[in-house]
Amino acid sequence: MQQMLKQAQKMQQQLAEAQEELANTEVQGTAGGGLVTATITGGGELRGITIDPKVVDPDDVETLQDLVVAAVRDAHAAAGKLAEAKIGPVTGGLGGALGGLGIPGL
């Protein structure tokens, strides 16, 4: 029993370290061939949006809006993959049991 408790504590520590690393890591998503770039943390916090002036057309705001949404979605997908890569090995495939923790990718 003591051994299981030690393993659980070690896993909890590794999970906390992975979550901290995710929170400090930035990933990017793009849309429109790189005309719009969204930068988010591995934890899903939006840090910035970069828009190439070529895509700014006052008569077509909807396209720009769509590109921003697509870039943010792409960045979130990248954050999910990063989270899976960092946390998956720690949890040993227990994603279903940990899915309620609000960790992207789990």
Question: Can you give keywords for this protein?
Answer:
single chain, alpha+beta, 3 strands, 3-stranded antiparallel beta sheet, Ybab, Chain: A, 106 residues, 3 helices, 55% helix
Rg over C-alpha atoms, rounded to the nearest angstrom: 18 Å
Strand content: 15-25%
Q: What's the order of the H and E elements?
A: HEEEHH
Query: Which structural class fits the helix and strand makeup?
Result: alpha+beta
* Largest beta sheet: strand ordering: 1-2-3
Overall pLDDT level: 86
Termini separation comes to 28 Å
**CATH 4th-level superfamily of the domain at 23-92:** Nucleoid-associated protein YbaB-like domain
Q: Classify the helix fraction into a percent range.
A: 40-55%
Large-scale geometry:
rod-shaped
Multimerization status: single chain
> Under the CATH scheme, which architecture of the domain at 23-92 would be assigned?
2-Layer Sandwich
